[in-house]
């Protein structure tokens, strides 16, 4: 009976509350902010533990009024018990934002690492305080619909990720100084506000991924474009229909680029062709390239006016094509004399095309790379067994004497045996080519 009584008392004990504060904080960190705050009513032991949680998501929509939101934020940021804050997601509305300065100042003091601030209502009048520009602990900064004021001194020594969407800058120098003052910045993403006509100059010795979008502009006049000086860049995405030009400098010959360049085809005048000519000349030094269907279409459209530069360094190419553009691809290959590996992704269905479609230049013109360097070809999209994709398969097998491996994928309605019979009818340029059917 004594043993049973002792066991019953131990079962009634609150052993979780006896755990040390750091361990309880880790447990609360696994909960949502709302759930973590609710634990404050369990007992006096738990009343202020949630203030130690290093991750917080604070949204004005979760509170009955703006004053309630403001009071909660002041309690969290002003509490002497708050330790370092690793991650904060802050959603604000269009009310007076005078509270932003003391809150951001507190975050900087408590060594914030990842900060996300989004204004969901109103205009762009909310200005981020100057203390944000000198946060030595910040690793990731994501801002939406805010204003960045000009700062004479910027120092963000640990910032690796910077994403800015619909941000208003006091002037062009504000953005340029911000980027150039991040010595370890690796990822930069910008979605430009609709009426922004600024030139965006990106100077970074560390940047690897850059995404720039200005496609939703309501401006009818062209605006100055983008200057990109990033020697370590490996991924470039530009979705822009209004910028006049894109200047890329100091690109290494061993660069790897993922390019999504979306420019309108209309108004293809000399000025636009000149800008594309310079852009292609700059990226012609890359070793490994991935281009989207729109970029390929743009390059081909340019080639109808002027010859393409030689992509002499490129050994690997991943290209996405519209089904209707398959027949145009051999023309592009003429500019890739040292291509070794090719991956083709197709958008759309081949049954939408005429079965009589042919691959232009498949007999009279064979690109240099097919004869001397191309060893690996892969069709990422499933084969329908109809033209022009079969024409392209035929084209590679017939004209590639050093091809080592061709990888194909079949649609479910095609039987492997029937498809192999079609392949056997194709004369081989290389007797050692391995054909893999998935």
Question: SSE layout and pairings?
Answer:
Blueprint: H1 2-12, H2 21-29, H3 33-38, E1 55-59, H4 66-78, E2 87-92, H5 100-109, E3 114-119, E4 127-128, E5 140-144, E6 147-148, E7 161-165, E8 168-169, H6 172-180, E9 187-191, E10 200-203, E11 209-214, E12 226-229, E13 235-240, E14 246-249, E15 256-262, H7 270-283, E16 288-291, H8 293-303, E17 316-322, H9 329-333, E18 341-347, H10 368-372, E19 376-379, H11 389-399, E20 405-408, H12 416-424, E21 434-437
Parallel strand pairs: 1-2, 2-3, 3-5, 4-6, 5-7, 6-8, 7-9, 9-11, 10-12, 11-13, 12-14, 13-15, 15-16, 16-17, 17-18, 18-19, 19-20, 20-21
Helix pairs in contact: 4-5
Characterize this entry briefly.
With 438 residues, the chain is an alpha/beta fold. Helices cover 26% and strands 23% of the residues. The radius of gyration is 29 Å and the shape is elongated.
Features:
single chain, 438 residues, alpha/beta, 15-stranded parallel sheet, 3-stranded parallel sheet, 23% strand, elongated
Explain what the structure shows.
The protein is an alpha/beta fold and 438 residues long. 26% of the residues lie in helices and 23% in strands. The protein contains twelve helices and 21 strands. It has helices at residues 2-12, 21-29, 33-38, 66-78, 100-109, 172-180, 270-283, 293-303, 329-333, 368-372, 389-399, 416-424; strands at 55-59, 87-92, 114-119, 127-128, 140-144, 147-148, 161-165, 168-169, 187-191, 200-203, 209-214, 226-229, 235-240, 246-249, 256-262, 288-291, 316-322, 341-347, 376-379, 405-408, 434-437. The strands form three sheets. Strands 1-2-3-5-7-9-11-13-15-16-17-18-19-20-21 form a 15-stranded parallel sheet. Helix 4 runs parallel beside helix 5 (100-109).
